[in-house]
Amino acid sequence: MSVYKEFLLLKRDFGGLVILFVMPLVLIITVTLIQDSTFKSISDAKIPILLVDYDKGNVSKTVFDNLQKSNIFTVVTKIDNKLITESLAKEAVFAGKYQMAIIIPEKLSADLQNKIDQNVQKIVNSFGMSDTLAKSDNTKVVNQKEVKLYFDPAVQMSFKNAVMSSIDKMISQIETKSIYATFQDQLGDGTVSFEQNSFISFKEIMPKINDKEIKPNSVQHNVPAWTLFAIFFIIIPLSINIVKEKTQGTFIRLRTNPVSNSIVLAGKTITYLIICMIQFYMMVAVAIFLFPHLGLPALNVEGHLFMMSVVALFTGFAAIGFGILLGTIAKTSEQSAPFGATSVIILAAIGGVWVPVFAMSKFMQIVAKSSPMNWGLNAFYDVLLRNGTISAILPEIGLLFLFFIITTAIALLYEKKKRGV
Amino acid sequence: MKTLIQILKLSKIYKDAEMYSLDDFSLSINEGQIFGLLGPNGAGKTTLISMLCGLVKPTSGSFLINNFTYANNGDDIKKIIGVVPQEYALYPTLTARENLMYFGSMYGLKGDNLKEKVIESLDLLGLLKFADKRIETFSGGMKRRVNLIAGILHNPKILFLDEPTVGVDVQSKNVVIDYLKQLNKNGTTIIYTSHHLSEAQDFCTDIAILDRGKIYAQGTPKHLIASIENARNLEDVYISLTGKELRDDI
Predict the structure, then answer these.
(1) What distance in Å separates the CA atoms of residue A138 and residue A122, rounded to the nearest whole number?
(2) Shortest CB distance from A248 goes to which of B55, B58, B89?
(3) Which of A255, A102, A238, A120 is nearest to A188 (CA)?
């Protein structure tokens, strides 16, 4: 009867239903679309960057060509049909009109070649081969050159670091190629050529299921993380439900009848668990069937749905425990709703929903391990990305259930201490 | 007559309060009585009822209900009491029938027995045609009547009523009072608080006038009126005992 009553109450609360079922879907679609486009190399997602070329040599040409080929950037060299100067680029970037500008200094190509020539000649001389080789001007002092980068102050550090590292790599490759070419010029008789491709390459080995590689994509990462986030938002309607009972007076009836508070809470737990599971299956269904129509990869749950359901169930338990505790302690919904929303965001942040836990400071990594959202996220990743079995997720789902038991027990004790006779 | 409620030196002081809400309070209530607890705001009426219903912990003292204590036989007490609080303790978005079915089920009533009991009670209090309307659409008087039914569906031996007729029209009040009298005739002992002194004078078999957590006078309405010189009714007794100054409490 308790479960039926809770369902009736929810059914007649339109705002509550929207929060419970529509908002999680909007959240998961929006976040996945945004995060997917961040990583996807599609032409309409290219980032325009300003290139100011004072060099007009090989180096600047190579930088330009590589950036154009990168599929991430479009290179802008003119604004309003005027060649961009450094001061114009600086102004445009600092005003947020462009995210970055690269300033290639004058004579970079020539000075780089001079420096390499001098270094190669020194090496060759040390082998006593100077007489047979073409001479270069060894006395000219070549100062170190600086490629300037301007970033929009609003650009995030991670993006900045990624761009800087790719430009650094590009310049190193240009330097290496120039060194090889100079050696070839100095030593070769026209028939010798150096292999200029990288000797060392990288190959990522993916985990396999049934001899099929599992290739994680943004959907495989995002859907579990944001599903977890949405499930935890059940804290808000649940805590409001409990607070309302106190303010409406129905709580008096519930406390003065022979049914214990734990039975009443069990009724709420069952109801909200069913809602959590409906939310979960709706989000999974959207990720499987709707995402491909939005240009996103479909969520691959092949062989994982049961285990994912287990994780969702225990995540639901943890969220409900927290909601019961919050609803019991809060005196008004003005207290419980903002506190619930903020704490879900904090739990998500420390749980690794936005920033991976391994990228956090040592202290925050320890804190992250105490977040139920982190336990849930790890369990989801174990199942979906690491092909884990039930024994792999047992510690995490155990912790999630323990969290439910502890929070509910505190709520029951608090209630008993405060009101009981 | 059997004593149903025995209160011994009961005291209650709330956290941060300067005065005791109940101060060394003793009282006996017998089976079959309609016992009125009357007094100005802050007299301790609601605190006393809340303690007897198991909602508030006493600071000191004790009480027995049907020879049970909450510490040892809490569930036994809860089975034999009915509570009608001052607030409309109902779910506004549920219908009258849904509310009553739910609260009735909490007392172990179920199936056809519960359904019939709900229909019968709604009919007796003139609400049957509104059974499937949501409580939020009801007037104050209608809510009061549903609030009352929710407390008596399980035929309690003892019924606690905290201002059951506050804010209702005369017609609703008469229906409620008549229904309560019938319940009492059928064996339910009633403990009642009110600010309607004429209503209490007609309705109660016994009355205690409380102020500042203590009993100032106790007896039948007739006895109380007779005990004060020139008193014509219960209001005269009440004013004579509790004074005329305002009792604005926070």
Answers:
(1) 9
(2) B89
(3) A120
Cross-chain Cβ contact B94/A12 below 8 Å: yes
Give the tens place of pLDDT for each residue, A20-49. Answer: 888 888 888 888 887 776 655 444 557 788
Per cent of chain A over pLDDT 90 is: 21
- For A333-345, write each residue's pLDDT tens digit: 888 889 988 998 8
CA dist B42 and B249 (Å) reads: 6
Q: B55, A5: Cβ pair inside 8 Å? A: no
Q: Which pLDDT score is estimated for B74?
A: 84
User: Exposed/middle/buried for A378, CB within 10 Å: 0-12, 13-18, 19+?
Assistant: buried
Kindly report the backbone phi and psi dihedral angles of residue A45, in degrees, each rounded to the nearest multiple of 5, phi listed first. -105, 15
A339–chain B nearest CA distance, Å: 25
Chain B residues in contact with A13 by the CB 8 A cut-off are: 93
Could you tell me the CA-to-CA distances from A349 to A169, A360, A396, B128 in Å, in that order?
32, 11, 18, 54
Contacts of A141 (CB under 8 A, 6+ apart): none
Measured CA to CA, the distance from residue A59 to residue A116 in angstroms comes to 13
Contact between B100 and B149 under an 8 Å Cβ cutoff? The reply is yes
Q: What is the per-residue pLDDT for A41?
A: 45
- The residue extents of the domains of chain A are 2-38+214-419, 46-187
Cβ contact A253–B89 (<8 Å): yes
What are the two backbone dihedrals, phi and then psi, of residue A27, each rounded to the nearest 5 degrees?
-60, -50
Is B141 in the A-facing interface, judged by CB distances under 8 Å? Answer: no
Token digits of residue A317: 């338990």
Count of residues in chain B: 250
The CA-to-CA distance between both ends of chain B, in Å, stands at: 39
Nearest 5°: the CA angle A272, A273, A276 is 85
Tell me which fold the domain A46-187 belongs to: D-Maltodextrin-Binding Protein; domain 2 (3.40.190)
Largest separation between any pair of C-alpha atoms in chain B: 57
Chain B (146-175) residues lying within 8 Å, Cβ to Cβ, of chain A: 150-151
Determine the topology of domain B3-242 in CATH. Answer: Rossmann fold (3.40.50)
Distance of alpha carbon A393 from alpha carbon A309, whole angstroms: 12
Round to whole Å and give the CA distance between A53 and A86.
Answer: 9
Q: State the distance between the two ends of chain A, measured CA to CA, in whole angstroms.
A: 27
Q: Say yes or no: A3 contacts chain B, CB-CB below 8 A.
A: no
- Surface of B (62-81) touching A: CB under 8 A: 70-71, 74-75, 78-79, 81
Break chain A down into helix, strand, coil percent, rounded to 5.
65, 5, 25
ipTM over 0.85: no
B140-152 and B96-105 helices, crossing angle to 10°: 20
Mutate to test the interface with B, among A3, A247, A250, A263 (most CBs of B within 10 A): A250
The two three-digit tokens of residue B196, written as one number: 């309607």
